[in-house]
């Protein structure tokens, strides 16, 4: 590995933690990883391509039979040691994550604890892959179902939660006996390297968990989708890329798990506890600078409480501190890059030009990073981009509504169906809205809902499959029916 001599002291040792198993790319090709807060070069890494991907697939294919044959208890023990090592190195790993992604150090620690929780969960689920027996129609046979690992899995993870996404995909696959190739996002590969090293230290055999690092993902994605030795693809990212991967997998009828885009509505009814709703809105909108697939994207507030909610949300948003994630006072880090900044600025400019009121924030801060102050917009309507498109930034557009029928229609009027939130205290209304919203996950009087024990995933064009819970393990298993005659 080649690193810049200017690597900051407080992350140097932690970044090096993850670089023990690097694979050289052809002709010395490399790509750079930068700190989004400062623009500083953190590292240059091997820039791999189709050849390295194919080699990783071959290694994973060879390793898969022996890994699947291991007793579940042994696989469980290795995963548990991996979990323990992540918590042991929590401070170092958090420094890596903040350095390459930008989020505040406290959020990085929280994400890594969440990642470790997924690994712990699937360490336990490894021992709970059950079959079934069925009453046979005659006495000369027995009927049963067994479940076996799907085989080699290709995984592609995003930059916004680069530790927890690795754990959510890799842990269930390893738990049930699959081997894995991981292509992490080019902006945030260092935390994946660190987690990979700790997995090997925990006792994971060579070839079971394989990394492919690259500055571009198109060719690697095509190889993972087209190579017949890869039996499943798991991807988290945009709906546009998800469609491409799904098409590329279709010739082989390959299993896919897709966790894609979202446009989450956040609904506040007049019966809601407004202070609780504001607190939930801050969590659902501004965590990770609004760069989450479950981030609240459209705020619908009933007319009777519209002004109160908007005023209190703007007041709380002004208290958020934007800056370098290593600063103790900072609560919001930078956007990932200038392209993300341009989209956020364009959405706010469009809304204001069409009559929305900017209640707070909405300005770019000076400095190398793409720092943007949290914005609250009132008077938003459907003509504005911010009400129709996923902004993926710290902007809260507030839309007024009158009736429950109106807001359900508006909330469901999207191709996406990942997450939704609403605040209400009337039980009849809670049940009606929860059942009517077309989303895979719904936070009811809660601004955060992700848990290793719960199924994470969406409806419509927000994806296929679930991560987390026992259902997350099922996505890496094949069901096999056995009909046994007399022996």
Automatic annotation (TrEMBL):
It comes from the Bacteria. InterPro entries: Ald_DH/histidinol_DH, Ald_DH_C, Ald_DH_N, Aldehyde_DH_dom, Aldehyde_DH_Superfamily, Succ_semiAld_DH. The keyword Nucleus does not apply. It is an enzyme of class 1 (oxidoreductase). Residues 29-481 form the Aldehyde dehydrogenase domain. It holds the Pfam family Aldedh. Keywords: Oxidoreductase. GO terms for molecular function: glutarate-semialdehyde dehydrogenase (NADP+) activity; succinate-semialdehyde dehydrogenase (NADP+) activity. Its EC number is 1.2.1.16, 1.2.1.20, 1.2.1.79. The keyword Oxidoreductase applies. PANTHER family: SUCCINATE-SEMIALDEHYDE DEHYDROGENASE, MITOCHONDRIAL (PTHR43353:SF5). Belongs to the aldehyde dehydrogenase family. This is Succinate-semialdehyde dehydrogenase/glutarate-semialdehyde dehydrogenase. It comes from Pararhizobium capsulatum DSM 1112.
